[in-house]
Amino acid sequence: MDHDDIMGAAKGSSTRGDQAYGTLRSLLLSGDIKPNTRLTEADLTQMLNVSRGTVRSVLARLVQEGYVTSEINRGVRTRVFSVAEAADILEAREVLEAALAGKAAERATAEEIRELRGILDGMREAQRQGDQAAYSRGNRSFHQRIKEAAHQETLARAHDSLLYPLVMRQYRNLSANHPRKGSLEEHEAIFASVITRNPEAASAAMRHHVASARQALLLEYTPENRPGGHGPDDAMCGTAPAADEKATGGDNAAP
Prior knowledge:
Helix content is about 65%, strand content about 5%. By secondary structure, it is mostly helical. It has a 3-stranded antiparallel beta sheet.
């Protein structure tokens, strides 16, 4: 095998590994695999259509990033967050999203402001019609556009490294009304601060918004009443989600 063949094989292996990583990460974020579910190499090899060596590399990467845990005699499992861990992650999110909103107020372009306005109009209409799925999509888009409009890559990377979609999936209250009361008004306050170029107000509005969502999420639970726990012999379940918004975090990915 010559040098070009070796490089081509290595690139192909890397591409398959990246694809497998992306598929499994999306599956974890989608919530189709419950917390504390055991992930076996045999199941993942079949599901992802890759070698066991590739599966091991993917799992090692996910362990390092905190999506799954690996323990002797327990194997690799999907992450379970204590209330304290969940609160820490969501508090960090408050700080980072508040900072991003402040930068968006300073740096958002006219086109980005038009996009935010359109998203907010769609959220109003979704709430009026009682379309929870459409509101959730708009909600996610609004937060994503705020992050992009900040034009602050270091903050954005720190924000993206948080595991809050997993926290939201574990602690979501399926019986709660959605959108949460006051959610739309909080988004409107953030937008008003951005279009008036008031970074302090934008930061404060975003922090209040994310903090309100955190409080609504966590105050119903105690460490002794942690939702999402499963027995030690749970096998991996669920199938890979379609390539849609569900794979980016689902309905509870943002407040």
